[in-house]
Structure formats: structure tokens, C-alpha cells
Batch of 2 targets.
Target 1
Amino acid sequence: MRRLLLALPFALLPLAVAHAAVEHDHDHEHGSLGAHEHGVGRLNASLDGETLELELDSPAMNLVGFEHAATSAADKAKVATVRAKLEKPAALVVLADGKCSLEQQELESPLFGDEPDHEDNAEDADDDGDEHHEHSEIHAHYQFRCVAPGALTELNLAPLFKAFPATRKILVQLIGPNGQQGGEVTPEAPALKF
């Protein structure tokens, strides 16, 4: 299964190259990081036999409401609340038809006390004295065992959008019994067919 997820980026490389070209143009217009867009998350999903793997990457802003290190009691409480929600993925994704149970999960973020990603920079000043603020991401990896995978016909993220209303769009790359597909889901259209 791990090999299947590792192959996903290569299988979808043409989509990524096209998306990168669009983001590159967007970067020049707005001066933002292409992979880090507030309101937009990314999800890789793979259903192989009874194993469903989900990998969610989101700017911390979408989930917590900020990206700086939590120093105040209020910020620490927000981080703890978000982490508690992410630790219950069955409440964020509708998987009931597949009779799926969580087997493994990993949560990573500088906000959770993990080491920052190599591309995350603390506030640094450039030659002009302008400050660049961190862009904190939250990464979640889940592995489910689904005893009725044939009944799992769609991936529905409606509860995730409800739990994290600042998330306005999730770009999905999915590999399932009917092959691979890419798409996007929104609060208004939160499901993608397997």
C-alpha cells in the first residue's frame, strides 16, 4: 500500500506540472507561495482492497485560524482543539458505508511542537527590511481498514468543511477501484466518487 501512495505523485505528475505552471504565474501576480494558499487544502486518497489511506495537507490558517507559534493560552487552546478534531478522522470524513475503522494516524505540524518543515522560515528580514512570516502547514495521515470496501462509493468531506469553515476548497487526488482521478471538493459539493 505504501508503494501505491508513493507512486501517486509520479502517476499524477502531468497534473502537478500543469498546476505548477498556473501557480507560478499566480506567484508573480500576488507574491505568494504556490503550494500554500489560505482556504485551500490538499488530499491524497488511495483505496486498495480493504485499505484506505488519506493524506491531508492544509495551511494551519484553514484549521486553526493562525500560523504563528501558539504562545497565548487562547492560541494554545485552539491548537489543542484542532488536534483533538484531527485525532478523530471518522468524524471528518463519511466512511460509514465501507465499515471503515482507523488503524493508524500521524499528525505533524510546527504548531503541534514538531520541527518546522525545511521550507518554513521563522520571521526573517530581507534586504529591504520586510519581514516574511512563517507559513505553517498541518499534515495528517490516516490508514483505515474497510471491511466493505465495495460499498464505499464516494469520499465525502462535508464534516471536515463543517469542522473547519475557513477551508473553502480541497484539491483531491484519488486512486480507487476505477483508476485515478483528480478533482476538487467544496462545502457546496463535498463528495467525490471512487
Note: Helices lie at 2-11, 13-30, 60-63, 73-86, 158-163.
Target 2
Amino acid sequence: MTLDPENWDETRAQGHRMLDEMFDYLATLRDRPLWREMPQDVRDHFKKDALPQNPQPLGDVYGEFARLVLPYAGGNLHPAFMGWVQGGGTPVGMLAEMLAGGLNANLGGRDHAPVAVERQVSAWMRALFGFPAGATGIFVTGTSQANLVATLIARAEALGLPSRKSGIADKKLCAYASAAAHSCIARAMDFAGLGSDALRLIPCDEHHRMDIAVLKETIAADRKTGKTPFMAVGTAGTVDVGAIDDLKGIGEVCRAEDLWFHIDGAYGALGMLAPEIAPRLDGIAEASSIALDFHKWGQAPYDAGFILVRDGEKHKAAFATPAAYLRRETRGLAGGDFWPTDYGPDLSRGFRALKVWFTLKAYGTAALGRMIWRTCELARYLEKKIRAEKALELCAPAHLSIVCFRYRASDEINAGIVADLQEQGIAAPSMTTIGGKRVIRCAIFNHRTEERDIDALLEAVLRLGKARA
């Protein structure tokens, strides 16, 4: 029994309708609220647990999507979405996802063109970050997984490859990151069997960067107590304020102490595409590994994380596992000199690389770099407007494209303002805590955002704040 349609013309017509309506949806984002809360009947609809036994016409299924899913999406396509570090996606990326779905390629390995596409994107990243020819990279779900991959490679390097069989035993490994590092670094330590307590959180200096002097002192103290430092993580774009650690300084410490130097560049690493930002990432070329997301500043559809490793042999040694059913042949489909499953945790891997390949080729790195810098200019525009308004308080400088501020009132009022903005569909900032106070956090990453969106946000903040105060 085939699952292909009996009538290809009907399916083609329905597919064209779906594609056209998604283009219409993208073209008219400003005409609708950013976010709408699901009404109870919609929530109840998705709680039905009876499996659909009988077929339904494709048009009916699509109608259900258009009626019950599309109107209640997360809103990150909208130009006024500024709550979390999420890109806005593109029509090109959407089309590439359609092609990838149609091809249904498994990129665990074997000899086929999709693997070559992923390898080409890896080569482009080697060039962008100044890594040597022997560096390797693969796509993963996101930087959370990429940071875990880096931790596992660093662990294998510290304990030796036999530890892949014998385990970590009682080795007291410890790693280092700034107090502003993303929580997924601690989770990576947990998942790697080292325990989140093995991550030393180094305080930040007045510029929200890891304090290098304290890093050195902490490493020395750990060595004196019999622990084994093995990795330090620099952050290129902290989640709260977008600060960039002193990557060059951390790299020098890692070389002196023989530590794996990993960089969590979830969004900031792609700042290398912008000539105005690249100098602030000085030292990134010396990293042992870099984690980044193309679905943030790169605007690729979710998900598109990536891990780049300087020493490809160490990368492979940490993950490759011989198996008879995965034997490499010298000819035929089971050939190929690069199987991505040897470099990460997954054998079943989708064609994530295609949407990034399309994005880089269709827009070009120069245009993407200008878009990235434009989001930083908008952050400075927002910063300037906040400084000029007495009712508002700037809580951290705009290092890149994140701005944190508050209405001069209580934490409760500021939280209420943010909830009102979201529920009224005006804009979607988020909340974080700086200096013990809850603040409004605007992360500007959408290529569609303009000054008018910033103005509308501030006008609403002032109006809602005044009403609540």
C-alpha cells in the first residue's frame, strides 16, 4: 500500500494553496497581533487523545492547522518580537525546509549529496572563524546540544579515550564559565556525568564579562585541592545583556593551563559576518570548539545549531563507535569518507544544513552582516530613547542587540507591563533580573524590526506603566 496520492493534481493544487497562504501570512505580519492566547476551546481540542483511525482529506487537515495553530503561534516572526533570542525566519528558509522535507534525507552518513552540503557549510564556517583545514563541524538541534558535544570531547581529551568504556571513575574534573553564562553549560556538565557543581561560575567585571583574574585564582585553588581543571567556556553574547567575554584573555589562560577552550557563541559568534562586530570577537580563532545557532542572528528556521571543532581527529575519537551495520564500504551507497554520526550523538539526522546553505547563498554573507549590524543599531536607538525619558531607567548598556531597562516603579508593575504588552499583541519583550531588580529585556534579532516598532514599544510601555502606577 502506497501513501502517495491517487490524484497528484489535487495534491499539487492543495500544496500551492498552502504555500501561497503562508507567503500571504509572512507578507502581512504587521496586520495582526503579535501573539494571541489560545482560547479554552482550542486548548481542549489539542487535549483529545483518541488516535485518528480513518483518513481525512488533506484540505481538512490544513484547515484545522489554519484555524487552530497558525493564529496562536509564538510570534517570533513578528517585527515587534523582542522577548527572547530568536530569529524571524525567512521565505527562503521556509522553501528550503519544504525541499528538505520532500527529499527526506538521513544525514547520519553514507555517500550522498546532502552530506556534501553539510560539509560545505562546515568548510564555510572554518573559513569564517579562521580554523585549520582539519577542523570538523556538524549540525545539531541547537547550542545547548552543541555545548554538550564540546563538553564530551573535552572530557575525553582530559581522561583519555579508554574512559569511554571505563567511565569517569572518581576523576574530579571541573570547568569554568562566567556567572552570566547560559544555564545549558551547567546542564552539559550534568549530562556528561560530571555534575553541575563541577562548573565554577566566575564573577563578571563591570563590563559583564568573566573576570580573568578570578578565573586564574579559581583554577589554582582547584588544583591545590586535588581537582582537575579541564575546560573553560567563553561566552560570545551573554543571554541577559549580550556581553562578549574577553575571548583572547580566556584563550591565553587555557593555553597556559592546558584546558579545552570552548566558546558558547549561540548568537554572538555570527557577529563575525559584520565588520563592525568582528573585532570584538578577537580570540575566537584560537578556540578549541565553537557552538552557535543559525536560527538566531542567521535567521534560518528552527532548528539549526552547529558545533565546530578545531581538531577533527579529537572530535571523531570522542564519538565514533564501530558497528557491523554501519560498516563503511569502498564503493556504493555505503561509501563516503565522512559520516556525521561519527562526530555527534545522532545517527538519525535531518537535512538541517539545507536551509542554512540556501540562506547563505540566497542572501550572501555581506547582506546578512549588514542585517546583524542593523539590529545592533536599533538597540542603540532604543537605548538613546530610554535615556531621554525620565520615566524609564537603562539597566545595562547595549553591548550588541539586547537592551535592558525598566519603568521607574516596582518589580510588580514592570512585570505587569510586559504581560500587558504580550496579551494585547503589541510587542513581546521578556523579563530578567539585573542588580536584584526585575527589568524589561528587549532582544532585537528579527530582520523585520524597524524604528517604528521600537517607538511603538516605548509608547506602550509608558502608557501602560502610567496606568498601572
Note: The chain has two domains: 7-35+74-89+365-469, 105-363.
